[in-house]
């Protein structure tokens, strides 16, 4: 009985060995050929993608669009090579494509939010309402664009925080792009006895001598309004976004020192309290 079982097991092992041997003999060259085709395709996709990137850099085209096109070219070449390799193995890709299409339809309905982010990302990359290095404000969130992906856009602020915004929340929204700078708005009061022209001249001199203030865009300084405290002076100027608060604080201090040296006081509201007995 044991001898019969041992003979059956040996016969099964022999059959498996024969099957593997016949498979390798019949398909080994196909496997090697398909593998070589795929490896050559990967190498070719990488070379073509780098060539596309160099051409974009040569013509000074935006890096975001360059990365998108080069990655798209790489994916297309790899997909074509994969189809050729499967055909080399004798596998028909037509039923596979049909199955992938049916599965994609179901998956698309399940991940509509993700697909909408990808569609918005393609819109951003093609239309280029902003590029890497610009300062944008969307939905009251401000930061410097660090990277643009298909699904989201990454911003950074002065604190070094990374802010990830899904692209569907950018496309179709009101978008402010101040490029590399950000606007500073400052208001303060002076006494009605003070000369506003002198104050404007002092503030203009401080901003003109400041290395933190962007000199390409002229600042706006003038009388913003009148109130019970005094004459309200308004100042608007631009500073680099990466050091927005630091530049703002240093500039405010310089303006205060200039006013203090010139003997111009900044009044504070005074309330009189009468106590009746």
Automatic annotation (TrEMBL):
Keyword Cell inner membrane tagged: yes
Pfam families: MS_channel_1st_1 (PF05552), MS_channel_2nd (PF00924), MS_channel_3rd (PF21082)
The protein's name in its UniProt record: Small-conductance mechanosensitive channel
Keyword Transferase in record: no
Ranges of residues in domain Mechanosensitive ion channel MscS: 114-177
Function: Mechanosensitive channel that participates in the regulation of osmotic pressure changes within the cell, opening in response to stretch forces in the membrane lipid bilayer, without the need for other proteins. Contributes to normal resistance to hypoosmotic shock. Forms an ion channel of 1.0 nanosiemens conductance with a slight preference for anions.
Organism: Shewanella atlantica
Alphabetical keyword list: Cell inner membrane, Cell membrane, Ion channel, Ion transport, Membrane, Transmembrane, Transmembrane helix, Transport
Domain of life: Bacteria
């Amino acid at each position: 009985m044991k001898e019969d079982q041992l003979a059956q097991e040996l016969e099964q092992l022999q059959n498996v060995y024969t099957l593997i041997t016949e498979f390798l003999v019949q398909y080994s060259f196909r496997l090697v050929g398909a593998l070589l085709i795929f490896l050559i395709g990967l190498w070719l996709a990488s070379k073509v993608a780098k060539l596309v990137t160099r051409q974009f850099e040569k013509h000074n085209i935006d890096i975001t669009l360059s990365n998108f096109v080069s990655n798209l070219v790489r994916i297309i070449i790899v997909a074509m090579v994969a189809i050729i390799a499967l055909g080399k193995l004798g596998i028909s890709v037509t039923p596979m494509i049909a199955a992938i299409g049916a599965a994609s339809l179901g998956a698309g309905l399940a991940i509509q939010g993700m697909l909408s982010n990808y569609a918005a990302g393609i819109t951003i990359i093609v239309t280029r309402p902003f590029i890497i290095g610009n300062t944008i404000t969307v939905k009251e969130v401000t930061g410097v664009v660090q990277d643009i992906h298909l699904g989201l856009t990454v911003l950074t602020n002065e604190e070094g925080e990374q802010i990830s915004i899904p692209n569907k929340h950018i496309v179709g929204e009101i978008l402010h792009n101040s490029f590399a700078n950000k606007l500073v708005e400052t208001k303060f009061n002076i006494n009605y006895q003070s000369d506003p022209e002198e104050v404007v001249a002092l503030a203009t001199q401080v901003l003109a001598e400041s290395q933190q203030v962007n000199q390409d865009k002229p600042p706006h300084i003038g009388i913003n309004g009148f109130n019970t405290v005094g004459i309200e002076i308004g100042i608007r100027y631009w500073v680099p976004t990466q050091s927005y608060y630091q530049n703002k604080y240093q500039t405010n201090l310089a303006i205060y020192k200039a006013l203090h040296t010139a003997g111009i006081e900044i009044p504070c509201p005074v309330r009189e309290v009468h106590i009746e007995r």
